[in-house]
Design brief:
- 2 copies of one chain form a homodimer.
- By secondary structure, chain A is an alpha+beta fold.
- Chain A is about 60% helix and about 10% strand.
- In chain A, strands 2-1-3-4 form a 4-stranded mixed β-sheet, with helices on both faces.
- The longest helix of chain A has 21 residues, at about 190-210.
- Chain A starts with 7 loop residues before the first strand and ends with a helix.
- Chains A and B meet through helix 4 and strand 4 of A and helix 4 and strand 4 of B.
Chain lengths: ~210, ~210
């Protein structure tokens, strides 16, 4: 199931540090290029397990892990983002992913995801508890109780499992990943390339419609 | 053993596809920023083995491997480089690494490395045979026979083993890697960041000398 190559499907995991960078950057960057975003949280840990990886490569490989934290400091400095290395990594983000699923096409999705990410990567807080997420939803003017109830109901749980399985079936092996039609772009380092590609598709499609 | 943070130590492997991108780009990019390059080939396979990896992650992980070849097509398009997926991957580049060690501070080092990389990633040819490298050296106006003899002599072999071991001891786990003083930057995606950092060090050092 691929979408039109005129949107960017943004596949991210709330525990993934490089997803943090893209969550903070994508709305502004996509608006500049006129590209609509489809927000699709998924659980990277589940995919790692199907790839026979027992944890994040940043945890399994000591050298790469040490590098990644230094790289994150520099990248956050470059993008003007705050940063604190989480004392728990990777943090489980099942509950915020379920909320993000419910809010995927709501105007609050970007703000919600950014606030959850800041809890994890700036404030070093747990992000998987309802009482941590409720204040975020309330701040956004939403009915926290209702949304969190719905997030924890079986149909939402099932949809998140399906969204993760769909990511796996599309060949996704890391986060963030951007899908533009059938083209896959992996890592925050490819966000700009993915947006440029999507905006080119939009222009081509407009030209081809104008010719008809 | 770290060098002054006013040069960029370029650690690359002739079999590594992302090293291909950096080998093709670095001389032009470094000249623009006024940063001298130290060319340091090493054998990534040896480091993978000390990390208990039996091969490149692009070979071991099917999903990542499939992605990488598409990513390379797009990256080469972006940087204006030719590209053909090698029929053997990763190719062994021991002999060209030994030549690169001998030529590290010679004016022909950049041109030599680019031509070897093009043999691997554009012409899909073996790069580890003396009769493949001789024409490259001859084209560059060099004494191919002399250089290849010296490349295959024990002292050169020993120096390449040492250069690889030194890369490992510095925490290098992939290629290309750029070292600027004690700062490590991994992947072609960080080449510009590494050069910017080095050029800032050069400016700071000049200012501090001017103040004395």
């Amino acid at each position: 199931m691929t979408t039109e190559p005129s949107t960017i499907e943004f596949r991210f995991d709330f525990g993934s540090n490089y997803s943090y960078l893209s969550v903070m950057r994508i709305e502004h960057a996509a608006r500049e290029k006129g590209v609509p975003i489809m927000w699709k949280a998924f659980l990277l840990g589940q995919i790692f397990r199907t790839l026979a990886l027992e944890n994040s490569p940043f945890v399994l490989q000591k050298e790469k892990g040490a590098y990644v934290w230094r790289d994150m400091e520099r990248q956050c400095c470059k993008f003007g983002l705050r940063w604190q290395q989480p004392s728990a990594f990777p943090r489980v983000g099942v509950l915020p992913s379920r909320v993000a699923l419910l809010g995927a096409v709501q105007c609050w999705i970007g703000a919600f995801c950014r606030r959850v990410m800041e809890r994890n990567f700036v404030l070093d807080q747990d992000i998987n508890q309802a009482d941590r997420l409720a204040p975020i939803l309330t701040e956004l003017g939403l009915s926290a109780g209702e949304i969190l109830d719905q997030a924890q109901a079986e149909p939402t749980k099932k949809r998140l499992r399906e969204q993760t399985e769909e990511a796996r079936s599309r060949g996704i092996f890391g986060a963030p990943t951007f899908l533009v039609g059938t083209e896959m772009f992996w890592s925050n380092d490819r966000l700009d390339d993915a947006l440029l590609f999507a905006s080119e598709q939009i222009i081509e499609s407009s030209l081809s419609q104008a010719r008809q």
